[in-house]
Amino acid sequence: MKKDKKNLLYKIRHSLAHLLATAVLYFDPNAKFGIGPVIENGFYYDILFSKKIDENFLPKLEEKIKELIQKNIKFEKQKISIDKAVKLFKKLNQPFKIELLKDLKKYGTTDYNEIIEIKSKKKKPKKLNEVTLYKSDIFIDLCEGGHVKKSSEIPIDGFKLIKLAGAYWRGDEKNPMLTRIYGLAFLSKDELENYIKKQEEAQKRDHRKLGEELKLFTTNENIGAGLILWLPKGGIIRQIIQDFLIETYKKNNYQLVFTPHIAKKKLFEISGHLSFYKENMYSPINIEGEEYYLKPMNCPFHLMIYKSWPKSYKDLPIRYAELGTVYRYERSGTLSGLTRVRGFTQDDGHILCREDQLEEEILNCVNLVKYVLEKFGFKNFAVDLSIWDPTKKKDYLGTTKNWNFAINALKKAVEKVGWEYKIMKGEAAFYGPKIDIKVKDVLDREWQISTIQLDFNLPHRFNITYIDKDGKEKYPFMIHRALLGSLERFFGLLIEYYGGDFPLWLAPVQIVILPIKESNLNYANKVKNELNKFRVELWEADETLSKRILNAEKEKIPYMIIVGDKEEKDNTISVRKHKEGDLGNMEISKFIEIIEKEL
Is 480 a catalytic residue? Predict the structure, then answer.
C-alpha cells in the first residue's frame, strides 16, 4: 500500500474510533472511556458501560456513526496543560482519562513497560506539561491526533462494527473489566466486503475448529492449558513430517542428537536464560536438594554435546539436529490452539563452523528452508533481515568485522535463492543478525516460520572452541536454524493452508473402502489387502452408502473405493475422488498407478 493511502486509512480508522465513542455517549451518557487505538484492519474502543449491552447493540451504534458522518463533524484539536485537562475530565467524570493524565505528568508516558523502566531508574521520565485533546461533536478525547478534518472524508459504507470482547483496563486483571468494541475500516465498500469474505474463509479454515472436526488434536484441562494431545490422525501426519525432516537432515549431513527435557539450574545460568528469559520459564523442580528447570530451548544442550571432546578445525562444520521438545510459560490469555502453546517440539539445528565456512553454511540453510517449505506446498516467500544499528555498538556483542561479515553472508544467501528481503535495522538480537522467512497462505496472510540466526554470544558463554591450523584455540561461528519452527505451530498453519484438505502424501487416511452391502465385505477386505502399502480404512455397510460417502467427504479423505456385486464379479473397483466425484470403474492395478503417480 502506498504511503499516502496508508496514512489516509490510518486517519479514517482513528477518526472512526472517536465517532464510535461519540455514538456511545448518545446511548449511554454515563459511559466511561478507556483507550481507542487504530489496529490492523480497523480500530477498537474500551468502554465501561453503565447499562448492559450485547451484540444486538452494534447495528444501532453503526447507524448512529453513519448519521454522525453525514453531519460532517469536525475533529477539533486543542492543546492545554495537563492540570487543566485533569479538571476537564473530572468534570466529564472520566476516571480512566484522569489516570492516564496523571501518568503523563509523572512519567511523561502511559506505556506500562516504560513506566517500569522509569521506576527502576533505568530510564529518565520525559518532561510533559501539555497534552492534546480532540473534540468530535459531544465527545472529547485525550489524543495525539491523526484524524480526517471532517467526518465527510470517511467512506460511509467502508466500515463495520464486528464484535464485543472483554478487556481489563490497561491489561491488568486487578483493574475493571471493560467492553471492547471492535470495528473494521477500509477505503471502500468493496475492500471491506473482500476482507469480510476472507475472514469468513479463515473461520472455515481455523485449525482449532478443523482440528476438532477431523480429530487431529485436542487439549484437556486435567493436563493443562497450552499442552497438546496429538490424536491418532494428527499423530500420523506428525510422524510423516518427522520422518521427512529426519531423512532431510541425514541427506544434508546433520548429526541427530537427543537431549533431556530438564537440566540443572547451572546450565541455564551459563546460557543466560535465567538472567534474561526467566519469566518465560517454568518454576524450578527440586530434586535431591538441587534445582532443575524444564528446558525452554535446546541450544545449551547441543553445546554441551560439542564440549564432550576437544575439536580440531578439521572437525568443522559440525551440524547437530534434534526434534527437541521445549517448555515455555506463556500467559494463559495469549494461548491459542496450536499456534501459541506451552510445550512444543522444535526442529532445531545448530551449526558450528569456521569463518571460511560461514557463507556456505548459511547458503545451505537457506536452500534447505526453501526445499522443505516447497515440499509442503508453499511458494511465496518473504524475508526480514534483522541487522544491528552500528551507531549503537555498545548494545551488541561481537566485533564490527564479525557483524559485517555475518550480515553480508546472510544477504548473499537470500539473494542467491532469489527471495525478496527487507532490512530491519536495529532489530537484530544483541548476539547476532538473523533472517526470518515468512510464507503467504491462500488468504494472503503472512506466517513467520523459519529462522536462521547467527550467535556471537553462546560460544563465548560456554567457552566453545576448536584448535585451528596454527595450534591456537578459536571460537567457532554458531548458527541456530529452524526449518519449520515448532511442529505444533507448523501443523496449525498446514491445517489452515489446506483447509484440512491435505495432499495425498500427508492425508492421515488416503483411501476408504465402502462395500455396498454386507455380502460385499469379503471382496472389500481383498481390495484392502491389495492396497495395504497405502493408508486405508474399510467402513462396513452399517449405514447407507450415501451417508458413508458424505462422511468421507466431511473427513476430507482423498479417495473412496465403492465395491458391490458388479465390481466383485468383474474384479474391479469404482473410484470416487474427494471434491471431484466419480472417476469410474477400473482395475485395482490401474488405481494403484494413479495413486503412485500422485504421490
Answer: yes
- Residue-wise pLDDT for 493-522, tens only, equals 999 999 999 999 999 999 999 999 999 999
348 is catalytic: yes
The 10 Å Cβ neighbour count of residue 586 is 16
State yes or no: is 434 an active-site residue: yes
Q: At what angle do helices 82-91 and 95-107 cross, to 10 degrees?
A: 170
**346 catalytically annotated:** yes
Compute the distance between CA of residue 312 and CA of residue 316 in angstroms, rounded to an integer. 7
Catalytic residue of the set 346, 370, 455, 528 = 346
3-state secondary structure 491-552: HHHHHHHHCCCCCCCCCCCCEEEEECCHHHHHHHHHHHHHCCCCCEEECCCCCCHHHHHHHH
What secondary structure letter does DSSP report for 223? T
353 is catalytic: no
Cα(45)–Cα(163) distance, integer angstroms: 11
Residue 381 lies in a domain: yes
Do residue 412 and residue 331 come from a single domain? yes
Catalytic residue among 350, 411, 548, 556: 350
- Cβ atoms of 481 and 351 closer than 8 Å: yes
| Residue 559 CA from chain centroid, whole number | 32
Alpha-carbon distance of 24 to 33, in angstroms, equals 10
Domain that holds residue 518: 511-598
Q: Are residues 305 and 434 in the same domain?
A: yes
Residues 491, 495, 496, 497, CA torsion sign: positive
> How deeply is 471 buried, as exposed, middle or buried, from its count of CB atoms within 10 A (0-12, 13-18, 19+)?
exposed
Alpha-carbon Rg for the chain, nearest whole angstrom, is 30
Position 1 scores a pLDDT of 58
Percent of the chain residues past pLDDT 70, beyond the cut: 99
Tell me whether the omega of the peptide bond preceding residue 232 falls within 30 degrees of 0, making it cis.
Answer: no
Is residue 412 part of the annotated active site? The answer reads: no
Looking at residue 42, its pLDDT comes to 95
Q: What nine digits make up the cell of 288?
A: 535431591
For the chain, residues with pLDDT lower than 70 are 1-2, 112
pLDDT at 535: 97
Looking at the fold, whether 9 and 77 belong to one and the same domain comes out as yes
pLDDT at 126: 79
